[in-house]
Amino acid sequence: MSEQYDRKTDNLARMLGVASLGLGAMEIIRPGAVSRLGGVDDSGLARAVMPAFGARELLHAALLLGGRRPASRVWTRVAGDALDLGALGRAIAARDGRRRRRALIAMAAVLGITALDVYTMVRAGRRRSKPGSAQGEHAAVLQAARRDDTLHAAITIDRPREEVYRFWHEFENLPRFMIHLESVETVGDGLSHWRAAGPAGTSVAWDAEVVEDRPGELIAWCAVGGPVNAGGRVRFADAPGGRGTEVRVELSYHPPGGKVGLAVAKLAGEHPEQQVRDDLRRLKQIMEVGQVVRSEGSPEGTRALRQAAQRPAQPTR
Q1: Does pTM surpass 0.70?
Q2: pLDDT digits over 104-137, tens only?
Q3: For residue 268, is it left (φ>0), alpha (ψ between -120 and 50) or beta?
Q4: Is residue 282 part of a domain?
Q5: According to DSSP H, which parts of the chain are helical?
Q6: Are 215 and 226 in contact (CB under 8 A)?
Q7: Is 316 a member of any domain?
Q8: Of the residues 80, 96, 127, the one at which a domain ends
Q9: How high is the pLDDT of residue 72?
Q10: Is 175 a member of any domain?
Q11: Dihedral of alpha carbons 41, 44, 49, 54, sign
Q12: SS3 of 229, please?
Protein backbone atom coordinates (compact mmCIF):
# COMPACT_ATOMS: atom_id res chain seq x y z
CA MET A 1 0.00 0.00 0.00
CA SER A 2 1.04 3.58 -0.48
CA GLU A 3 1.83 6.04 2.28
CA GLN A 4 -1.79 7.12 2.15
CA TYR A 5 -4.41 4.78 3.49
CA ASP A 6 -4.36 2.73 0.22
CA ARG A 7 -5.22 5.71 -1.94
CA LYS A 8 -5.46 3.52 -5.04
CA THR A 9 -8.51 1.72 -3.62
CA ASP A 10 -10.16 4.99 -2.60
CA ASN A 11 -9.50 6.50 -6.04
CA LEU A 12 -11.02 3.42 -7.65
CA ALA A 13 -14.09 3.79 -5.43
CA ARG A 14 -14.43 7.47 -6.40
CA MET A 15 -14.23 6.52 -10.07
CA LEU A 16 -17.13 4.13 -9.48
CA GLY A 17 -18.95 6.97 -7.76
CA VAL A 18 -18.55 9.16 -10.84
CA ALA A 19 -19.92 6.31 -12.97
CA SER A 20 -22.92 6.04 -10.65
CA LEU A 21 -23.47 9.79 -10.92
CA GLY A 22 -23.54 9.71 -14.72
CA LEU A 23 -25.70 6.60 -14.98
CA GLY A 24 -28.13 7.83 -12.33
CA ALA A 25 -28.58 11.16 -14.09
CA MET A 26 -29.29 9.40 -17.39
CA GLU A 27 -31.80 7.00 -15.81
CA ILE A 28 -33.71 9.94 -14.35
CA ILE A 29 -33.50 12.31 -17.34
CA ARG A 30 -33.92 9.73 -20.17
CA PRO A 31 -35.47 6.60 -18.58
CA GLY A 32 -36.99 5.41 -21.86
CA ALA A 33 -33.71 5.63 -23.76
CA VAL A 34 -31.82 3.73 -21.05
CA SER A 35 -34.41 0.96 -20.85
CA ARG A 36 -34.42 0.55 -24.66
CA LEU A 37 -30.61 0.54 -24.77
CA GLY A 38 -30.52 -2.21 -22.17
CA GLY A 39 -33.19 -4.21 -23.91
CA VAL A 40 -35.29 -4.27 -20.74
CA ASP A 41 -38.46 -2.71 -22.09
CA ASP A 42 -39.76 0.63 -23.24
CA SER A 43 -43.16 0.16 -21.64
CA GLY A 44 -44.74 2.63 -19.27
CA LEU A 45 -43.84 0.39 -16.32
CA ALA A 46 -40.17 0.35 -17.28
CA ARG A 47 -40.11 4.13 -17.69
CA ALA A 48 -41.72 4.46 -14.25
CA VAL A 49 -39.26 2.10 -12.52
CA MET A 50 -36.11 3.39 -14.22
CA PRO A 51 -35.99 6.69 -12.25
CA ALA A 52 -35.99 4.64 -9.04
CA PHE A 53 -32.88 2.87 -10.31
CA GLY A 54 -31.43 6.28 -11.12
CA ALA A 55 -32.13 7.55 -7.61
CA ARG A 56 -30.34 4.48 -6.26
CA GLU A 57 -27.30 5.23 -8.43
CA LEU A 58 -27.25 8.84 -7.21
CA LEU A 59 -27.28 7.51 -3.64
CA HIS A 60 -24.25 5.35 -4.48
CA ALA A 61 -22.55 8.42 -5.94
CA ALA A 62 -23.24 10.47 -2.80
CA LEU A 63 -21.80 7.73 -0.58
CA LEU A 64 -18.66 7.25 -2.67
CA LEU A 65 -17.93 10.89 -3.47
CA GLY A 66 -18.91 12.46 -0.17
CA GLY A 67 -16.55 10.79 2.34
CA ARG A 68 -12.88 10.36 3.14
CA ARG A 69 -12.92 6.54 2.97
CA PRO A 70 -15.23 5.78 0.03
CA ALA A 71 -13.93 2.23 -0.53
CA SER A 72 -15.61 1.09 2.66
CA ARG A 73 -19.02 1.82 1.05
CA VAL A 74 -18.56 0.05 -2.28
CA TRP A 75 -20.65 -2.84 -0.95
CA THR A 76 -23.74 -0.72 -1.66
CA ARG A 77 -22.93 -0.83 -5.37
CA VAL A 78 -22.50 -4.60 -5.22
CA ALA A 79 -26.01 -4.89 -3.77
CA GLY A 80 -27.32 -2.66 -6.58
CA ASP A 81 -25.50 -4.78 -9.17
CA ALA A 82 -27.45 -7.81 -7.95
CA LEU A 83 -30.72 -5.97 -8.63
CA ASP A 84 -29.56 -4.92 -12.10
CA LEU A 85 -28.48 -8.46 -12.98
CA GLY A 86 -31.84 -9.81 -11.82
CA ALA A 87 -33.75 -7.36 -14.02
CA LEU A 88 -31.56 -8.12 -17.03
CA GLY A 89 -31.93 -11.86 -16.47
CA ARG A 90 -35.70 -11.54 -16.65
CA ALA A 91 -35.40 -9.44 -19.81
CA ILE A 92 -33.18 -12.03 -21.49
CA ALA A 93 -35.62 -14.82 -20.63
CA ALA A 94 -38.65 -12.88 -21.90
CA ARG A 95 -37.25 -11.32 -25.07
CA ASP A 96 -35.93 -12.52 -28.38
CA GLY A 97 -34.33 -10.93 -31.40
CA ARG A 98 -32.73 -7.48 -31.16
CA ARG A 99 -34.04 -6.75 -27.65
CA ARG A 100 -32.52 -9.94 -26.32
CA ARG A 101 -29.18 -9.14 -27.94
CA ARG A 102 -29.21 -5.70 -26.35
CA ALA A 103 -30.04 -7.27 -23.00
CA LEU A 104 -27.18 -9.76 -23.38
CA ILE A 105 -24.75 -6.93 -24.16
CA ALA A 106 -26.03 -4.98 -21.15
CA MET A 107 -25.67 -8.11 -19.01
CA ALA A 108 -22.03 -8.49 -20.06
CA ALA A 109 -21.35 -4.84 -19.26
CA VAL A 110 -23.00 -5.09 -15.83
CA LEU A 111 -21.07 -8.30 -15.08
CA GLY A 112 -17.82 -6.46 -15.83
CA ILE A 113 -18.83 -3.56 -13.59
CA THR A 114 -19.87 -6.01 -10.87
CA ALA A 115 -16.45 -7.67 -11.03
CA LEU A 116 -14.80 -4.26 -10.59
CA ASP A 117 -17.11 -3.43 -7.67
CA VAL A 118 -16.37 -6.77 -5.98
CA TYR A 119 -12.63 -6.32 -6.55
CA THR A 120 -12.73 -2.89 -4.92
CA MET A 121 -14.81 -4.20 -2.02
CA VAL A 122 -12.34 -7.05 -1.41
CA ARG A 123 -9.39 -4.63 -1.46
CA ALA A 124 -11.18 -2.42 1.04
CA GLY A 125 -11.91 -5.41 3.26
CA ARG A 126 -8.26 -6.44 3.31
CA ARG A 127 -7.16 -2.87 3.90
CA ARG A 128 -9.37 -2.18 6.86
CA SER A 129 -10.51 -5.19 8.83
CA LYS A 130 -13.37 -5.24 11.29
CA PRO A 131 -12.59 -4.65 14.99
CA GLY A 132 -12.53 -8.33 15.87
CA SER A 133 -10.17 -9.28 13.05
CA ALA A 134 -8.10 -6.14 13.63
CA GLN A 135 -7.46 -7.38 17.14
CA GLY A 136 -6.43 -10.71 15.65
CA GLU A 137 -4.04 -8.95 13.27
CA HIS A 138 -2.62 -6.94 16.15
CA ALA A 139 -2.19 -10.08 18.26
CA ALA A 140 -0.44 -11.82 15.35
CA VAL A 141 1.99 -8.90 14.95
CA LEU A 142 2.83 -8.99 18.63
CA GLN A 143 3.11 -12.78 18.71
CA ALA A 144 5.48 -12.85 15.76
CA ALA A 145 7.53 -10.00 17.20
CA ARG A 146 7.97 -11.51 20.64
CA ARG A 147 10.78 -13.67 19.30
CA ASP A 148 13.43 -10.99 19.09
CA ASP A 149 11.96 -7.65 18.05
CA THR A 150 9.69 -6.59 20.90
CA LEU A 151 10.85 -3.87 23.22
CA HIS A 152 9.61 -2.84 26.63
CA ALA A 153 10.00 0.45 28.44
CA ALA A 154 8.43 1.96 31.54
CA ILE A 155 8.44 5.15 33.55
CA THR A 156 6.66 6.62 36.57
CA ILE A 157 4.98 9.99 36.10
CA ASP A 158 3.82 12.05 39.04
CA ARG A 159 0.41 12.77 37.61
CA PRO A 160 -3.02 11.05 37.99
CA ARG A 161 -3.57 7.99 35.82
CA GLU A 162 -6.63 9.40 34.02
CA GLU A 163 -4.74 12.57 33.11
CA VAL A 164 -1.81 10.66 31.62
CA TYR A 165 -4.18 8.37 29.71
CA ARG A 166 -6.12 11.33 28.26
CA PHE A 167 -2.91 13.05 27.16
CA TRP A 168 -1.68 9.94 25.32
CA HIS A 169 -5.10 9.18 23.87
CA GLU A 170 -5.09 12.54 22.08
CA PHE A 171 -2.70 11.21 19.46
CA GLU A 172 -1.89 14.68 18.17
CA ASN A 173 0.12 15.07 21.42
CA LEU A 174 2.50 12.23 20.55
CA PRO A 175 4.93 14.29 18.40
CA ARG A 176 5.44 16.56 21.43
CA PHE A 177 7.51 13.85 23.11
CA MET A 178 8.21 11.30 20.35
CA ILE A 179 10.99 13.17 18.63
CA HIS A 180 10.99 11.09 15.42
CA LEU A 181 7.28 11.73 14.81
CA GLU A 182 6.46 14.71 12.64
CA SER A 183 2.67 14.57 12.94
CA VAL A 184 -0.29 12.40 13.90
CA GLU A 185 -3.76 13.14 12.53
CA THR A 186 -6.89 11.46 13.87
CA VAL A 187 -9.20 10.57 10.97
CA GLY A 188 -12.03 8.85 12.87
CA ASP A 189 -13.29 5.31 13.39
CA GLY A 190 -10.21 4.49 15.47
CA LEU A 191 -7.90 5.39 12.59
CA SER A 192 -5.04 7.87 12.60
CA HIS A 193 -2.44 8.95 10.04
CA TRP A 194 1.18 9.05 11.23
CA ARG A 195 4.21 10.69 9.64
CA ALA A 196 7.74 10.22 10.93
CA ALA A 197 11.22 11.37 9.98
CA GLY A 198 12.99 8.86 7.75
CA PRO A 199 16.61 8.45 6.69
CA ALA A 200 18.43 11.18 4.79
CA GLY A 201 15.77 13.79 5.47
CA THR A 202 12.90 11.74 4.05
CA SER A 203 9.51 11.08 5.65
CA VAL A 204 7.64 7.83 6.21
CA ALA A 205 3.85 7.78 6.55
CA TRP A 206 1.40 5.08 7.53
CA ASP A 207 -2.02 4.56 9.10
CA ALA A 208 -2.71 2.97 12.47
CA GLU A 209 -5.88 1.56 14.00
CA VAL A 210 -6.78 1.42 17.68
CA VAL A 211 -7.69 -2.23 18.32
CA GLU A 212 -8.23 -2.06 22.09
CA ASP A 213 -9.06 0.90 24.29
CA ARG A 214 -9.79 0.65 28.00
CA PRO A 215 -10.15 4.16 29.41
CA GLY A 216 -7.55 4.89 32.05
CA GLU A 217 -5.91 1.47 31.60
CA LEU A 218 -4.81 0.48 28.11
CA ILE A 219 -4.42 1.67 24.50
CA ALA A 220 -3.40 -0.86 21.84
CA TRP A 221 -2.80 -0.10 18.18
CA CYS A 222 -1.62 -1.75 14.98
CA ALA A 223 -0.26 -0.33 11.73
CA VAL A 224 -2.62 -0.75 8.76
CA GLY A 225 -0.63 -1.51 5.62
CA GLY A 226 1.99 0.92 4.41
CA PRO A 227 5.76 0.64 4.91
CA VAL A 228 5.55 0.13 8.68
CA ASN A 229 4.84 -3.28 10.20
CA ALA A 230 4.33 -2.64 13.89
CA GLY A 231 1.94 -2.76 16.79
CA GLY A 232 2.02 -1.75 20.40
CA ARG A 233 0.36 -1.40 23.77
CA VAL A 234 0.67 1.22 26.46
CA ARG A 235 -0.64 0.42 29.94
CA PHE A 236 -1.47 2.88 32.69
CA ALA A 237 -1.51 1.82 36.36
CA ASP A 238 -1.42 3.58 39.74
CA ALA A 239 2.13 3.72 41.03
CA PRO A 240 2.73 2.34 44.55
CA GLY A 241 2.68 4.79 47.42
CA GLY A 242 0.58 7.35 45.56
CA ARG A 243 3.55 8.36 43.38
CA GLY A 244 1.44 8.93 40.28
CA THR A 245 1.16 6.67 37.25
CA GLU A 246 3.23 3.81 35.92
CA VAL A 247 3.36 3.90 32.10
CA ARG A 248 4.46 0.64 30.48
CA VAL A 249 5.01 0.42 26.73
CA GLU A 250 5.27 -2.78 24.69
CA LEU A 251 6.17 -2.19 21.05
CA SER A 252 6.57 -4.83 18.35
CA TYR A 253 8.22 -3.97 15.08
CA HIS A 254 10.08 -5.42 12.12
CA PRO A 255 13.06 -3.10 11.61
CA PRO A 256 14.11 -2.16 8.06
CA GLY A 257 17.03 -4.35 7.03
CA GLY A 258 16.20 -6.97 9.66
CA LYS A 259 18.83 -7.78 12.25
CA VAL A 260 21.57 -6.15 10.18
CA GLY A 261 19.66 -2.87 10.09
CA LEU A 262 18.97 -3.15 13.80
CA ALA A 263 22.67 -3.66 14.55
CA VAL A 264 23.63 -0.64 12.45
CA ALA A 265 21.00 1.48 14.21
CA LYS A 266 22.32 0.35 17.59
CA LEU A 267 25.87 1.30 16.68
CA ALA A 268 24.64 4.69 15.51
CA GLY A 269 22.92 5.27 18.85
CA GLU A 270 19.43 5.03 17.33
CA HIS A 271 18.32 1.70 18.76
CA PRO A 272 14.49 1.71 18.96
CA GLU A 273 14.51 0.75 22.64
CA GLN A 274 16.69 3.75 23.44
CA GLN A 275 14.38 5.95 21.41
CA VAL A 276 11.30 4.80 23.35
CA ARG A 277 13.02 5.35 26.70
CA ASP A 278 14.00 8.84 25.61
CA ASP A 279 10.42 9.47 24.48
CA LEU A 280 9.07 8.42 27.87
CA ARG A 281 11.48 10.74 29.66
CA ARG A 282 10.22 13.62 27.53
CA LEU A 283 6.62 12.59 28.30
CA LYS A 284 7.42 12.70 32.02
CA GLN A 285 8.87 16.20 31.68
CA ILE A 286 5.85 17.47 29.76
CA MET A 287 3.36 15.99 32.22
CA GLU A 288 5.22 17.12 35.35
CA VAL A 289 6.90 20.36 34.25
CA GLY A 290 4.84 21.41 31.25
CA GLN A 291 7.69 21.29 28.74
CA VAL A 292 10.76 19.30 27.74
CA VAL A 293 13.70 20.50 29.82
CA ARG A 294 16.57 21.44 27.54
CA SER A 295 20.04 22.83 28.07
CA GLU A 296 22.96 24.13 26.07
CA GLY A 297 24.49 20.65 26.35
CA SER A 298 21.43 18.96 24.85
CA PRO A 299 19.66 21.59 22.75
CA GLU A 300 17.15 19.12 21.30
CA GLY A 301 16.35 17.38 24.57
CA THR A 302 17.31 13.77 25.25
CA ARG A 303 17.97 12.18 21.89
CA ALA A 304 19.92 9.00 21.21
CA LEU A 305 22.35 10.41 18.61
CA ARG A 306 23.35 13.20 21.01
CA GLN A 307 24.14 11.00 23.99
CA ALA A 308 27.89 10.94 23.32
CA ALA A 309 28.05 14.69 22.75
CA GLN A 310 26.12 15.72 25.84
CA ARG A 311 28.03 17.44 28.64
CA PRO A 312 27.30 19.44 31.80
CA ALA A 313 25.91 22.81 30.83
CA GLN A 314 23.96 25.74 32.12
CA PRO A 315 20.26 25.97 31.20
CA THR A 316 19.54 27.90 28.03
CA ARG A 317 18.21 31.44 28.46
Answers
A1: no
A2: 888 888 888 888 888 888 877 665 444 444 444 4
A3: alpha
A4: yes
A5: 7-29, 31-37, 44-65, 75-94, 97-127, 131-145, 161-169, 258-267, 272-289
A6: no
A7: no
A8: 127
A9: 73
A10: yes
A11: positive
A12: coil
Residue with the bigger pLDDT between 7 and 149: it is 7
Q: Which domain holds residue 219?
A: 131-306
SS3 127: helix
Residue 76: exposure state from Cβ atoms within 10 A (0-12, 13-18, ≥19): middle
32 plus 170 within the same structural domain: no
* Cβ-contact 79, 117 below 8 angstroms: no
Question: Cα(173)–Cα(195) distance, rounded to whole angstroms?
Answer: 13
Do 70 and 166 belong to one domain?
no
Assess whether 109 and 229 both reside in one domain.
no
Asked whether residue 2 is assigned to any structural domain, the reply reads no
Domain boundary among 127, 142, 172: 127
Q: Are strands 245-253 and 191-197 parallel, antiparallel or unpaired?
A: unpaired
Statement to judge: residues 76 and 184 lie in one domain: no
* 244 and 223 Cβ atoms separated by less than 8 Å: no
